[in-house]
Amino acid sequence: MKVGMLLRGTYPEDIRVRKEAAALREAGHEVYLLCLAGEGTEPAAVDGVAIERIDWDGYSVATRAVNRASYLFGSFDAIWFRRARRFASVHDIDVLHVHDLPLVRTGLRVARSLGDVSVVADLHENYPAAMAQYRSERSLFERLQGRLLRPISRIERAEREAVGQADALVTVVEEARDHYITDCDGDPDRVHVVSNTVDLDRIETMDHTPVPDDVPDGFVVSYVGAFGPHRGLETLIRALPETPPEVSLLLVGAGSPESDRRLRQLAESEGVADRVTFTGWVDFADVPRYIAASDLATVPHRETGHTATTVPHKLFQYMALETPVLVTDVGPLGRIVRETESGVVVPPENPTATAARISELVGRDLTHYGESGRRAVEGEYGWARDAERLRRVYDDLTTR
């Protein structure tokens, strides 16, 4: 079967897309990818996946403006439609595998225009809830602009259309599957879970040597990833003054200049600036080194419609590296950590409870949490299991 993936992003930076492409190739499928161009020279193939790239700068300002209006008001991207239709025709694509909601309506129209082409909608996140969350974190002007130009109700209609018309839908956790079945009237037989688990083979090839120059002494509590209000990093900083003095916070990653500034100011106002280390953005290849240097790794999400229906890749990275975890009791986070006994669970946005739990762990042997997490990603929560689930989705398409 010839699979054409559509990705409204750059490649090979997207870890999930790379894993899925490899899993499908291992099953004997041919995989092609249409994505956005990044900066500089980029390969025409990665790991056997032939790649075509859309260079947005190659289009006139007027063309892009008209295209933007079409997308805002109709969730339809004319430039992507033309390129994807040609892409699918040239490669004689059997299945369009569309990553994330913004391109699904376009992908469905491409498939209808060509006839016998199936569509797999790969919804990495609850997109309407995610947009509502991101907008709530922006300025009043930006919130009003979003409400006027692309209200959440319009995005929800596009979501229901994707769920109803795609030949198969792939999502990341059972909570998201329930959302698509219950809230979007999805067919249970067509909604599948392929989670954001880690490829252990790839993790094992990466350098796990701790990074002593960037990591403080004492009991190190870390967070890896992007910054932003819904991530809950404010809770960690506010909890720090109530923990023993040997506890330090290691924030690996970055956000917008505004979010970085806000977190640094909060650390100053809480009197713990000397106990919080900001590394800035680091290469993905270096992430295991920071996790290995940590005593406790965290996912302190606030509770929103988005965080309740998704799970970040970082949780499984922590578990794969046998690092005990602390997560908030939000959606799949608390469920998975309790089920796997890989760490501890605290209420969201509760600095006092978070501080108390961290304080209890200082000085204790936490090896059992790390070992339990590792066993989980070698079994139920490993990419080998999810890759097989993805291959079964494609097996089902061939029998219809």
UniProtKB/TrEMBL annotation:
One of its GO terms (molecular function) is glycosyltransferase activity. It comes from the Archaea. Residues 18-202 form the Glycosyltransferase subfamily 4-like N-terminal domain. InterPro entries: Glyco_trans_4-like_N (IPR028098). Gene3D superfamilies: Glycogen Phosphorylase B. It holds the Pfam family Glyco_trans_1_4. SUPFAM superfamilies: UDP-Glycosyltransferase/glycogen phosphorylase (SSF53756). Signal peptide: none annotated. This is Glycosyltransferase family 1 protein. It comes from Halosegnis longus. The lineage of its organism: Archaea, Methanobacteriati, Methanobacteriota, Stenosarchaea group, Halobacteria.
